[in-house]
Amino acid sequence: ETWKYAFEEAMTDVQGVYAQKFKEEVEANSDHEIQLFPFGTLGESADIMEQAQAGILQFVDQSPGFTGALIPEAQVFFVPYLLPAKSEDLGEFFRNSKAINEMFPELYAEQGLELLKMFPEGEVVMNTKDPVEKPEDLNEVKFRVMTNPLLVESYKAFGATPTPLPWGEVYGGLQTNIIQGQENPLFWVESTKMYEVTGAITLTGHNNFTTAVMANKDFYDGLSDEDKKVVQDAADAAFEHILEYQKGLSEESLAKIKEAKPEMTISDLTEEQRAPFKEAAAQVEAKFIEMTGDSGKKILDQMKEDLKAATQ
Amino acid sequence: MTLKISTIMIVLLLFGFPMMIPLILGAAYGFYGLFGGFDRMDFMVQQMLAGIRPASLIAVPMFILAADIMTRGQSADRLIDMVMKFIGHIKGGLAVSTATACTLFGAVSGSTQATVVAVGSPLRPRMLKAGYNDSFVLALIINASDIAFLIPPSIGMIIYGVVSKTSIAELFIAGIGPGLLLLVLFSAYCIVYAIVKGVPTEPKAPWGERVAAVRAAIWPLFFPVIIVGGIYGGIVSPTEAAAICVAYALFLELVIFRSLSVADIYKISKSTGLITAVVFILVAAGTAFSWVISFAQIPQQILGAIGIDEMGPKMVLAVISIAFFVGCMFVDPIVVILVLVPIFAPVVDSVGLDKVLVGTIITLQVAIGSATPPFGCDIFTAIAIFKRPYMDVIRGIPPFTLILLGVSAALIFIPQIALFLPSLAFD
Amino acid sequence: MKMGSEDQKSEPHSEHYESTLPGVIGMFDNAISRIESVMLALGVMLMAVNTIANVISRAIGSTIFFSEELNRILIILITFAGIGYAARHGRHIRMSALYDALPPKTRKVLMIVITVITALTMFALCYFAVGYIAKVAKSGRVLSAMQIPVYWIYLWVPVGFFITGVQYALTALKNVVQKDIYLSTHVLEGYEEDEIEI
Ligand code: NA
Ligand code: NA
Domain Tripartite ATP-independent periplasmic transporters DctQ component: where (chain C) (predicted)? Predict the structure, then answer.
């Protein structure tokens, strides 16, 4: 059988690397073949999600933040400081988190999706014109965010002026100074060349961009036990591959940026410097609970416990 | 399937069906074939709606509106009168000015359709009056507008840069050389055309008349200032610049020149909406069609069949050129870039091609394809705006296509046309 | 050149648009035409106002988060109100070179075939659009800034397809009943010379 798998990034980005490893594993251990559809080739994120829900696609990778339009609780991944800041704790967190491995699969199942894996894509950094070391440095900074209410709340809390701008206009907007900042995983700042039009990268440790791979539930339930195992094993193998791949990735992205643009200011904030940003998180948590009610609060609390467990 | 779909589409097109029908039925045939029936047709609707989603499309109705207000009012006439006083006595002067205006406007607005409208609406009547043939005028407007793809900021290059991991800054600079070369060649063709066809010239205007014309055009002269200043001053995005132009055009025509009434504005808005709909339904249908091509992995099959993996760099470039050229004849350029770039990426890497050069060539092909029949946004826009029959609109295109193809061939053999400027800037 | 409509015989301004259909159907047709033209004009104006408001609010340091979503709603509204309006006024783009070369009898038959197939296609799309909207409604997906259900913004889509289908069906009927060849319910085939007036 030929299975189709669509994702939100280019073939060489993290989601593409995961997808290629998944494909390689499935094809090595079964007679099935997987066709990969990177960013834009079958539509935008919401389009491929609908196609997967309808079973036109067997697999889809959509980041939980975007899934928030369907599953409000998934927006918990936009709440700052809920994920381990150190990369060595990440594997532990994602492998053992009860929120991720027990609570979210049920929510996804309600939408006709089998949640196969959530994995980290890389530390989200602030990418600005001028260096940022404290919330005051974000005063008067028009910071581009996606139009998600929690991201908007976060950057308000951090002291910036959150500004919506379609992604296609971000590069030009930074170049002409319509906006003075944007956030994305480090590898994304490198691969989309955003460093060409900005001057500073700040590691605040406030988030690690998380994404999720799902299968259409009817399709998955209809697989033989043997095929289910092939799929699960491939998802696990690709997960380990990504953790390994991630280890050097941030350093590598930074090195590439440094080489292309030596004058780029890169600040890795200390614990003290991060403290005021961490304080701002409370405001975002309140907003999240306001939006998602009890079930959101349960997930949020569980995430915090999982975080404690992973970082002890 | 590919052959059947293209046959159906071309037959329907030739027999005079509304142009959305070949695209919709072509896509529907694909959906029917892929899923063995009609139960997935709702996703054809999904893709049609996806086609008209991009935020950048907003620039099109906004520039149509601004251009129509300027043309029905006095702004456009005053601007063109001024230009004519300076170049009316030169053979082909008006045509060269039109080409230059399209290039400049397209460069800043970033939208080729908006350029067709904004520059074409006021200048086409003037060129007709000056004695140019309509098909030549339409072809000139469409093709000169497409130079905008190559001159920064170019949405096509941004998308290519993101998908292929290429420096957007280098791409931008690389596009300037071929873009200017095209403008020069188009201008040369205009002058030759004017001389061969004996297009009459006006007597040279005395300086007194020129000064008077400049003074009459002083208010509308702020349009370019607003667009360029707004964008480079960091106040507006290129898309928003279109809306600001609407505001300024309203201010001039309602308050300063008092040439239009509020009722006129209502009519103009309605006509803008109509033109927008006629063009966007085709963009929508084209997106559904391209989804079928992408989902069925048709490009991969074709490339496998012609054995691209065994080709040398120049052959690969030629295949890339042809693929993008053909793709853009049928489908929106942005979609073509998104679908085809990842497919070619491995072979581009393995033969060691310069990704900036590949990006420049792709952008050029996209420009050619969008202005080349049978399908193409800029052709549709011209038909909808100028209400001319399809054949009149495309009749004059071939000489321009030849020039464009000549420049593509030149780029493959003399990459320095594109790479010279970036090498100065970055090495 | 005038791009507006009131100066052309083929496309009277909506205030003067009189349906050529009899009785109640005619009144209904007039009403729909009026609604479509208001939606087109207001849609375009609102889009300009919305975009300008967004620029101004950003310049003074605040932001309108739903601006992009509002434009998305408007573009759907304009497109799907416009295709019906364009069908009514015979403004959809077509390539008529081969068609024009045919003798009148053949053209008449071909025009009936074209309008029937186009009408059927539009009705089919209307049906599929309803199916798609039902699916989106069931999923509960919301717009991220406005926090309203996504399917709301698509509701005009099947209506637009349906109205367009009706226009083409009526054109087919008109071609069967009348002697002349009609491009739409009240536009005769062929481009008019005065369209290139300055
Ligand atoms: Na441009
Ligand atoms: Na084309």
Answer: 47-174
Q: What is the pTM of this model?
A: 0.90
How far apart, in whole angstroms, are the C-alpha atoms of residue B249 and residue B245?
A: 6
Kind of pairing between the strands at A181-185 and A113-128: antiparallel
- B141 neighbors B123 (Cβ within 8 angstroms): yes
Closest to A278 in 3D by CA, of A258, A304, A310: A304
Instruction: Tell me phi and psi for residue B18, to 5 degrees.
Output: -55, 140
User: Token pair for residue B109?
Assistant: 């607005």
Q: Which amino acid is residue B15, in one-letter code?
A: F
pLDDT tens digits, B379-402: 888 888 888 888 888 899 999 999
pLDDT of residue C4: 36
Q: What is the pLDDT of residues C70-116, one digit of tens each?
A: 999 999 999 999 999 999 998 888 877 788 889 999 999 999 999 99
- ipTM of the complex model: 0.91
In the complex, which subunits touch A with 3 or more CB pairs below 8 angstroms? B, C
* Rounded mean pLDDT, A15-32: 97
Chain C contact for B276 (CB, 8 A cutoff): yes
Please answer whether residues B195 and B91 qualify as being in contact, where contact means their C-beta atoms are separated by less than 8 angstroms: yes
- Number of neighbouring beta carbons within 10 Å of residue B128: 15
Q: A30-39, A41-50, B150-159: which range is least confident on average? A: B150-159
Amino acid at the residue A38? P
Three-state SS sequence of chain C: CCCCCCCCCCCCCHHHCCCCCCHHHHHHHHHHHHHHHHHHHHHHHHHHHHHHHHHHHHHCCCCCCCHHHHHHHHHHHHHHHHHHHHHHCCCCCECCHHHHCCCHHHHHHHHHHHHHHHHHHHHHHHHHHHHHHHHHHHHCCECCCCCCEHHHHHCHHHHHHHHHHHHHHHHHHHHHHCCCCEEECCEECCCCHHHHCC
Of C61, C56, C1, A166, whose CA–CA distance to B243 is shortest? C56
The sign one gets for the Cα dihedral A219, A225, A227, A232 is: positive
Of C62, C65, C139, the CB nearest to A147: C65
Report percent pLDDT > 70 for chain A: 100
Given its phi and psi angles, is residue B353 left (phi above 0), alpha (psi -120 to 50 degrees) or beta? beta
Tell me the pLDDT tens digit for each residue of B345-386. Answer: 888 888 889 999 999 999 999 888 888 887 777 888 888 888
Ligand 2 centroid from CA B189, angstroms: 21
Interface check for B47 against chain A (CB to CB < 8 A): the answer is: yes
Q: How far is the CA of C187 from the centre of ligand 2 (A)?
A: 28
- Among all residues of chain C, which has the CA nearest to that of A164? C65
A164 closest CB neighbour out of C61, C67, C141: C67
CA-nearest residue to A167 within chain C is C68
Contact B49 C154 (CB under 8 A): yes
Please say whether the dihedral angle defined by the alpha carbons of residues C2, C6, C11 and C13, taken in this order, is positive or negative: positive
pLDDT computed for residue C190 by the predictor: 65
Ligand 1 centroid–CA B229 distance in Å is: 16
pLDDT score at A260? 92
Residue C8 has pLDDT above 70, yes or no: no
Please choose, from the candidates A192, A172, A184, A179, the residue with its C-alpha nearest in 3D space to the C-alpha of residue A260.
A192
- Please tell me which of the candidates B162, B169, B235 has its beta carbon nearest to residue A192: B162
Q: Which residues pair with A3 in a beta bridge?
A: A34
Residues of B in contact with A197 (CB under 8 A): 169
Name the nearest CA neighbour of A245 among A68, A19, A66: A19
Q: How far is CA A112 from CA A109, A214, A221, A298, B397, in A?
A: 5, 10, 11, 22, 51
H or E, element range at B244: helix B238-250
Give the burial class of A22: count Cβ atoms within 10 A of its Cβ; 0-12 exposed, 13-18 middle, 19 or more buried.
buried
**Window 106-125 of C, Cβ < 8 Å to B:** 110, 114, 117-118, 121, 124-125
